[in-house]
C-alpha cells in the first residue's frame, strides 16, 4: 500500500464562465521545490474522477505494478490512470535533477479539485510541492466567494430601505412613535454592519489574507445587529409604542437578554469567520450552543408576548392592530420552523462530515448553512416588524367600538391627524392604568400626555353628548 506516503490537497474551483464579469481563467499551479531530493509524481483531478486512478491502493506505476498489469510501460514513474476513460485527470512527474519545474492546470468546469503527490519511485524521502489555487474573481477561497456578492447585495438592499425609511420619517416627522425612532437607529446600524461585512470579504479577496482589524469589527457589528434585531422584535411583540407606551421593569430584562445574546454573538461571529468548515471539530458546538440558547429564549419570549398582545387587542376589539399582529405571529411561527429545519440539517451535515464525498458534493452550499440563512431569516423578521409599526402609525382608520356588554360605555378611538397641527398619530382608549404607571415612574413624555389628555376629552364628550 502507498497510503502512508500519499499526500493530497483539495479546494473548490470556479470555471470562469460561472463568475459574472470575469475574463481570466481559473488555474491550479503546482510547483516543485528544489529542496526535494527525489522525483515526485503529481496528479490533478476533479473529485468525481477519484476512482479513475490507482489500483487496489497502488498509486504509482512501478515495475511491480507493470508486472501486475495495473499500468502500461508508458506510465512508469507516474500515477496509474485508466486511459480508457475520459476524465479531468492530468499527471506530471517532477525530476529531481531539473530546476524551476512547474505545471499549470486550467479549470474547464466548476468543481472540487484535488492535487496529490507521491515520491517516485516509492520511498520515505521528503519532498515539497506547493499548490497555488487561482480563481478568476480574486484571492478568496472558493467556498467563501458567495459571501462577497451576498453581502454586497444585502448592503444595497438595506441602503435602499434606509433611504425610503428616511424620506417617510421626514414627511411624517411630527407623527413618529418612540418605537420608530428606535427603528431608525436599527436601520442605520444594519446598513453600516452590512457594509463592513462586504468590506471584510472584499479586502480578503483583494489581498488574499484576512484583516484582523476588520474581522473584529465584523464580529462585533454582526453580534450587535442580531441582538438589536431580536430586541426590537421582542418589544414590538410586547406592544411597546403601539399598545402600551412603556414596558416598565420588563424593559430591563429585555436589555439583559440582549446583552447576553450580544456577547455570545461576538463569539459565534468570530468562530464563523475563523473556523474552517473542512476541519471543524466538535468544539464548534461550544461556539454555537450559548447563542442558540439565548436565541431560543428570545423566540419563546417573543411568541409568548405576541400571544398576550393579541389577547389584549381582541379584548379591546382593536381589529386593525389585531390583524397586523396575527400576520407577525404567523411570520414568527414560520421563522421558528425554518430555524428548527436548518438546525436538523446542520446536525445531519455534522454527522456526515467524515464522509469523503460530503465536502466535494456540498462545498458551494456550506457558507449558506453556516451563515447566509440566518441573515435572510433575520432580515424577514425585523423588517416585517418595522413595516407593521409604520402601518400602525400611518393607518387612516377611524373606528369606535365597544369593549362589550361587560365593559361599560368606554370606547376605543383611533384617529389620524394632520402632522402639522401637532396632534398625535393615534389615540388608544382605556389607558388609565398605563397613564398612572407612567406618572409614577416619571417616564411619561409630552406626546404621551397629549395623547392621554385628548383621550380624556374625547371620553368626556362621548359621555355628555357634546361636540
TrEMBL record:
Pfam family of the protein (one): GOST_TM
GO cellular component: cytosol; Golgi apparatus; membrane
Transmembrane segments: 150-170, 182-200, 212-243, 255-275, 281-307, 328-351
Membrane topology of the entry: Multi-pass membrane protein
GOST seven transmembrane domain mapped to chain residues: 146-375
Annotated region (Disordered), positions in chain: 393-467
PTM1-like N-terminal domain boundaries: 7-135
Keywords (A to Z) from UniProt: Membrane, Signal, Transmembrane, Transmembrane helix
Primary subcellular site in the record, as a coarse category: membrane
InterPro entries: GOST_TM (IPR053937), GPR107/GPR108-like (IPR009637), PTM1-like_N (IPR053938)
Subcellular localization(s) per the UniProt record: Membrane
One GO process term, biological-process aspect: retrograde transport, endosome to Golgi
The keyword Membrane appears for this protein: yes
Designated name of the protein: 4007_t:CDS:1
Annotated source species: Dentiscutata erythropus
